[in-house]
Design brief:
Helix content: 40-55%
Oligomer: single chain
Shape: globular
Distance between the termini: 26 Å
Structural class: alpha/beta
Number of strands: 8
Bound molecules: 1,4-dihydronicotinamide adenine dinucleotide, ligand LZSIJSXV
Strand order of the largest sheet: 3-2-1-4-5-6-7-8
Number of helices: 9
Largest sheet: 8 strands, mixed
Length: 262
């Protein structure tokens, strides 16, 4: 897709990947409506991005994606401000093995809701123009990790859900593409808080000693490495059904290149 002039909705955009993805799209001439549960972080990012790309290009919406009405309001607000939605990025995610139910609500249920809402708004029969939906899974969507079982379950779910919808001829006929991004460890707060031992962060994973060994072996990607893969997916002419794994040692690797089971 050519990004210039398109409108994107990005969840979890106050920091980390979501903020970097917002900036990368703005740089290429898109308008971005980003959402986050973190109001002060969101407002701060809004100020920074507006200073670089203009007040009229970027809009922050306070939204807890686990709350259906707030998610619906996000779409309403984006449409009222920017009139269309061409790119949807379900990026908001948490890691919390002790609070695994919340992990399912945010990583899985909200990702599904965001996808269904985007499909509705992108449908040409509803006035949409088609579009691209990128769902952010993880290396943990492709491989097990006994220090993150609930997180792994949600990330496998994202992969299965997104690949399945990508096979549906209905959405293909509407000009809608769906792809999955699978980053390995990257240097956002989700990882750095644990490494630096920020209060409560290590309680969110099991077996931290195993986890640190694995990060040492695999290495840690920069946010720029992951953003580069994200933009590659969005800008591809056909990203439908793609699963892009990115890790420090091997870089970008497309998985399941024979996309369908038929
Ligand atoms: N950092 C990493 O190594 C990897 C991260 N991921 C995934 O990338 C996505 C982004 O993560 P990071 O940027 O690393 O994390 P992060 O923790 O830096 O950023 C996540 C953002 O999502 C927001 N958020 C959390 N719950 C929310 C909710 N209920 N509603 C709205 N916003 C909410 C947070 O406030 C935060 O701004 C997540 O889905 C994560 O699982 C995937 C693979 C690797
Ligand atoms: C192999 C699974 C890769 C999953 C990457 C991902 O999606 C998110 C990872 C988020 C956090 C990483 C969790 C733990 C590793 C980090 C540091 C452990 C440090 C423990 C310590 O005692 O210092």
């Amino acid at each position: 897709m050519k990004v210039l002039g398109k409108v994107a909705v990005i969840t979890g955009g106050a920091r980390g990947f979501g903020k970097a993805f917002s900036e990368a799209l703005l740089k290429r001439g898109a308008k971005v409506c980003f959402a986050d549960i973190d109001v002060s972080g969101g407002q701060q990012s809004q100020r920074e991005l507006a200073a670089k790309f203009g007040e009229t290009s970027v809009h922050f919406v306070k939204c807890d994606v686990a709350k259906e009405e707030e998610f619906r309001d996000l779409f309403r607000e984006c449409l009222s401000k920017f009139k269309k939605i061409n790119i949807m990025v379900n990026n908001a995610g948490i890691l919390d093995e002790a609070g695994w139910e919340k992990c399912i609500d945010v990583n899985m249920t909200a990702m599904m809701r965001g996808t269904y809402l985007a499909l509705e708004k992108m449908n040409p029969e509803n006035g949409g123009e088609g579009g691209t939906i990128i769902n952010v899974s993880s290396f943990a969507g492709l491989y097990p990790a006994h220090f993150l079982p609930a997180y792994v379950a949600t990330k496998h779910g994202i992969l299965g859900f997104t690949r399945s919808l990508a096979m549906d001829p209905l959405y293909q006929s509407q000009g809608i593409q769906l792809a999955t991004l699978c980053p390995a460890f990257a240097s956002t707060n989700m990882v750095t808080d644990i490494i630096q031992g920020e209060a409560g962060s290590r309680q969110k994973i099991l077996y931290p000693d195993v986890a640190i060994k694995i990060t040492e072996n695999m290495g840690i990607c920069s946010v720029a490495d992951i953003t580069d893969g994200f933009i590659e997916l969005v800008e591809k002419e056909n990203c439908n059904g793609d699963v892009l794994l990115i890790d420090k040692k091997n870089g970008k690797q497309y998985q399941f290149v024979n996309k369908t089971t038929s």
